[in-house]
């Protein structure tokens, strides 16, 4: 895990780490989001996320992202890079990246339906919508604008 961590993060900069416990779902599924009663229990398995904001000029871009920014000729722009640790055990791509400007349309955040289309283009990267989608929610619901690049390890 250290090579991934060193590739993705600047250890001298602030890194935030969070943990969300898994849950055993006996009855009810996601109905609790609508106020229904469910029978669930937190378990020791969990999802851990490390996230770091970094100025675009300092961000280490993957080669294809470097080529895209060079082709556009507009200098470093904020990007999102996500690595899904352990994805080799599934049918999903281990990495996802995008320019954060792709979440904007005419100075406003894109609609959630457009985001769904965006993340559905490549089935191997559809998982990233669950992670990157929270950035769009912050932009659309709270007016947050991201001028820094974001690196995430999930």
UniProtKB/TrEMBL annotation:
Pfam families: GalKase_gal_bdg. GO terms for cellular component: cytosol. Keywords: ATP-binding, Nucleotide-binding. Signal peptide: none annotated. One of its GO terms (molecular function) is L-arabinokinase activity. Residues 9-53 form the Galactokinase N-terminal domain. This is Galactokinase N-terminal domain-containing protein. It comes from Rhizophora mucronata (Asiatic mangrove). The lineage of its organism: Eukaryota, Viridiplantae, Streptophyta, Embryophyta, Tracheophyta.
